[in-house]
Amino acid sequence: MVKATFENLSKDKQDRVTEALLKEFSAHTLASAQVARIVKEAGIARGAFYKYFEDLTDAYQYLFKLAMRDLHTGLTGRMGADELYQMTKDFVTKATGSQYYDLIRLHYAANEALLPSRCRPVPGRPWPCHTRRSRKPCWTRTRQIFT
To answer: Which of 1, 10, 72, 83 would staple 79 via disulfide (CB 3.0–4.6 Å)?
Structure first.
């Protein structure tokens, strides 16, 4: 989770750091990403990076959530099948032409497997497991079992 220090930065500096993260994570997997390249691109000290984020994974998760929030703008609550289809089609179209395309491509090709699982078992209800925060089903376990 992004630290308060990052949230208190000027918009200009936040944008510089975010753009440096996007450049790094669009060209390199989480396993091969380097803080050195990010801080050089953003024009910040290495120590400042760790005042803003816990580690590279934390920075990656911040950026990916930002991308998903941007790409899912306009998403509403309950939808019928037609609305869900159109929303999915719009998402794919928007993602394909966005600045986040390479980030998303690498996410599903390599980075998703490197992230810590958000899936937490609930006592007495092992299937499906639920995330602690949202209590929505987490199908990570299902995917792991069937692949």
So the answer is: 83
Q: How far apart are CA 14 and CA 9, in angstroms?
A: 6
Residue 125, phi then psi, degrees to nearest 5: -140, 70
Whole-structure pTM value: 0.72
pLDDT band at 77 (very low <50, low <70, confident <90, very high): low
Residue 45 CA to residue 36 CA, distance in Å, equals: 9
Residue 108 · residue 64 · CB < 8 Å: no
Round the CA-based radius of gyration of the chain to a whole number and report it: 17
Whole-angstrom Cα distance, residue 28 to residue 7? 25
Q: Which of 77, 69, 71, 60 is nearest to 24 (CA)?
A: 60
pLDDT score, position 140: 44
